[in-house]
Amino acid sequence: AFGVILEDGNDGTVRDCVFAWDGPTLGWGAEFFSMTGGAIQHNQATLAAYGLVNITNSRSVVASGNALNGTGKLGYYGVVLEGGDHNVVAANRIDGLWNGNPFNYGTQGMDDGVFLQRETADTIRDNSINNVFDIGIESAGPLAGTVISGDTISNAFVTAIGSYWGTSWTHNTVRNNVVISSQWLAAFTLLGGWPDPSTPPASIDFSG
Q: Is the predicted pLDDT of residue 100 greater than 80, yes or no?
């Protein structure tokens, strides 16, 4: 089930929409693919989804003021940023509906609140992220020049902020975030492999 997809354009807007899907397969909410500029704002989504909001190969897109909810089933991410730069995720309310049981894989709700893969110069700020099975804000592959600030992350099982795969942090800043009922503020492992098998374990430049 797909919601709205905007592709290969400039300054598109998805605003004040309602997305709902509770079917047997993963759904999609709003997706921007190869977009420059534009906004995904003030939408409501209740989905078991790969990403309720997906911003792929895009730059200078703003996702803000959205209310994004899981369904309590297996769902991957609230917001996905992949292969882009200068994107903004701000003032969203994300509830993965994880019930606190670490042994119920497949019915555990949303995995991560925000997921960044190979992104540069993004801003992740002032979001409320609650009840996720894995990480509140996770990166995979290189992440550079990104600011994560002013977010409130509650009941993220593993860690509030972190990276496992292809970890490479360069000139990123983490500051003024609030973490409640999570094991760690930030946790990193230096594993190669996914998302790019040719990427070796790399490095972390962590400030703030």
A: yes
